[in-house]
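Progress against Task 2.4 (sequence-to-structure conversion) is shown through the following example record, which the project officer requested during the mid-term review.
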Amino acid sequence: MHRIASGELHSTYTLGDLRITSLRDGYVDMPVGRLRQNGDKPFGDDLPEQVALFGGQLRLSVNAFAIDDGNGITLIDTGAANAWHPSMGRLPQALDEAGIDVEKIRTVCFTHTHLDHIHGLVLADGRDAFPRLARLLVPRQELGLFRAVARLERFHEMAQFFEAGDHLGAHVDIIGAHGHEVGHSCFRVSSGGECILIWGDTVHVPSLQFDRPDVTWEFDGDQDQARESRLRLLALAADDHCFVAGAHLDSPGIGRVVRSGGGFRFEPL
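Structure tokens generated for the chain above:
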């Protein structure tokens, strides 16, 4: 996997015969207490030194990923648009910077239905972000959650479901990664003997959760299941030599996972 182009808001890589582009929607600052340890105990003054803070808060990058197979472009997650913090909503600029024509994005898939992953279907001015969208895929367990989002009502009937074990075309397989949300999913993309796990919110704070994958996040719907999924995907990435792409890994959010002591280490690509 090699980087062939980059800018402030994007980085594009080759993966076999595919092109994978990381797209930066922005960032969100969150309280340290969102991190949980030893069951459900928030971090406080005991936060490890390697975790950088911005104004006393954790800064999480918000990334989406495009897969170009030469015939069409599939987008994994869409960012938040103007639905949450003003530090997000830059996906349209990222796509433009990367030279990706939004009319060529015919398929959009969601790792899960939290607002910083789905609201980018609609631009801040109310127009459709992807005017030629033909296929919209949501985890089976979260189809109802998606259809409850009033802002996205025009897409409710278009949405179809997928589940773990499904194949989305020749290059993409679905791996269950439940816990953060009830249907949270990972997309394994393979080509030319290489693979990458586009794993959504498996890791929120990379400076801590690779070394200590037991640490969970307040917004994990089922913290025990989220921890199990994180450990399983970290082991899969390390042992099968897959690259990983994370929605909240520091932009561009792509790299390798290696085992290190009793935990893991992230090596940015």
